[in-house]
Amino acid sequence: MNLPFVPYRIKVVEKVRKVSREERTELLVKAGYNLFGIPADSIYVDLLTDSGTSAMSDAQWGALMQGDESYAGSKNYFDFEKTIRGIFGYKHVIPTHQGRVAENLLFSTLLTKESVVPNNIHFDTTRANVEYKGAKALDCVIDEGLDPEIDHPFKGNMDLAKLDAAFEKYGNERIPFVMLTITNNSGGGQPVALANIKEVSSWCKERNLPLIFDACRFAENAWFIKQREDGQQQRTVAEISAEVFSYGDGCTMSAKKDALVNIGGFLCLNNDEWAEKITNLLILIEGFRTYGGLAGRDLAAVAQGLREVLDEDYLEYRIGQVRRMGELMEERGVPILKPIGGHAVYVDAKRMLPHIPQSKFPAQALACALYLEGGVRGVEIGSLMFAAKDSDSGEMVYPAMELVRLAIPRRVYTETHLAFVADVCVNLMSMGDKLQGLEIVKEAPVLRHFTAKLKPVNGGNLISE
Ligand code: F0G
After folding, report:
1. Which atom in ligand 1 lies closest to the alpha carbon of residue 102?
2. How many angstroms does the Cα of residue 123 sit away from the middle of ligand 1?
3. Which end of the chain is less enclosed by CB atoms within 10 A, N or C?
4. Which helix (H) or strand (E) covers residue 347, if one does?
5. Contact assessment for residue 302 and residue 59, using Cβ atoms and an 8 Å cutoff
6. Quick check: is 12 in a domain?
7. Model pTM?
8. Range of the domain at 362
9. 287 alpha carbon to ligand 1 midpoint, in Å?
10. Are both 207 and 354 inside the same structural domain?
11. 182 touches ligand 1 (CB under 6 Å)
């Protein structure tokens, strides 16, 4: 028997509407071949993101009914604080309404125009928040973490030689702290090894630099450490997480991932002076320090979600679900980023559709075809998102990879849904060069991928007859 153990059963369901191929074709044309423009109720399997899309448990829904909505000193805050201190171990716990606000508060308080922040790879909002302060976001992941075909157990690891080079160039004057994203979302949901975290921490301590984790997917990272790192198999995910955080000085957290809620976040710090300044800013832009932009009931759901995410039966099933969908694709020849990450499968559109040049958006064409053929929504991480004109030469510079990320919401889809997604990908593979590239009709000057309108290059169908 090789069927997985499913650590929950279904108590509440959400109706999914059957949408015909004709309707999907119309919707796609109307949305200008941009999946951000498709109404969510016209999607069968929505793998746009794993953020804020989790199914909450009965215990979380129960906790919502126990919300204490007092402006100051809500009992839910004290439970939230105690639960987070118990897992993360930091002194100050500052609630925010999502992860990017925790980033913004930290960066607004500590960065200047001269600052440089090293990270394995900054997630988009983290990079944007660093750059918004005029500072520099520096990615220092190991080289293996940038190659979609290399199999390596900890592709999220930081490269100490790159950190050395950054320190030599910028020194303590310009580097206020170092960040480490666990798991590394922008590099494919890849974990960081405990040994690497320890090394980065010693490196930081020797230079008197704080280490701050971007902890969105910390439980998934700890699960990979338990599975893949020597000597970790007998420990619990809670013990591993506690050790991970003991090497740092604080963390930013989007509770929309590993706290299993639909909205929420927080910032943890040991430094009293930073915490005080940030709390003052929090009161200005988010809310009082015992709710930070959330309702009391939201804090209760986060605390309960954090207790649930450390359940190893849950983690085994969750990460197994992502892996099984990836394996179903790989076995049948769909090129995917290796190894399969913790929260998503990334399809390599450059290898899957070699006949479409990057100027014709192969990953966007693939994402649209997944919707057209199966009602599946993923997200393009390729030229539509990243290609930009070089400011000196005026020439278009294309990103190294053309990927479609299929991020799996937690506790939402069955194995049948995910096997269906794999089937749709395999069918598209067999269509070969019938799949056409796209060209832009209209685009915004920044973050164009959210609103751009496109059309198939041949002026006809995305998939030619
Ligand atoms: N850091 C990482 C590593 C993330 O993946 C995200 C969000 C954030 C920070 C920001 O958190 O959305 O609560 O403000 N990632 C989502 C995604 C949006 O689809 O990967 P937020």
Report:
1. 14
2. 7
3. N
4. strand 344-348
5. no
6. no
7. 0.96
8. 21-50+311-459
9. 21
10. no
11. no
CA of 86 to the centre of ligand 1 (A): 23
Which residue, 260, 279, 308, sits at the end of a domain? 308
Which residue has the least CA distance to atom 19 on ligand 1?
49
Do 407 and 424 belong to one domain?
Answer: yes
Is pLDDT of 163 > 70?
Answer: yes
CB 97 near ligand 1, within 6 Å: no
Domains of the chain: total: 2
Which of 107, 192, 216 for a ligand 1 pocket mutation test, highest count of atoms within 8 Å of Cβ?
216
Beta-bridged to residue 388, according to DSSP, are 397
Token pair in block for residue 213: 């984790």
Rounded to an integer, what distance in angstroms lies between the CA atom of residue 103 and that of residue 281?
12
Question: What percent of the chain has a predicted confidence (pLDDT) above 70?
Answer: 100
318 and 299 within one domain:
no
Residue in 35, 221, 256 to alter for ligand 1 test, most ligand atoms within 8 A of Cβ: 256
Identify the band that residue 92 occupies on the pLDDT scale cut at 50, 70 and 90: very high
pLDDT band at residue 1 using 50, 70 and 90 as cut-offs: low
Q: CA dist 288 to 95, 257, 283, 291, Å?
A: 9, 24, 5, 6
Residue nearest to atom 16 of ligand 1 (CA): 51
**Does 304 share its domain with 343?**
no
Question: Hey, whose CA ends up nearest to atom 2 of ligand 1?
Answer: 123
Q: Whose CA is nearest to atom 8 of ligand 1?
A: 99
| Predicted local distance difference test score (pLDDT) of residue 394 | 87
What are the angstrom distances between the C-alpha of 272 and each of 94, 101, 269, 277?
A: 12, 19, 8, 9
Q: Which of 273, 308, 343 is the last residue of a domain?
A: 308
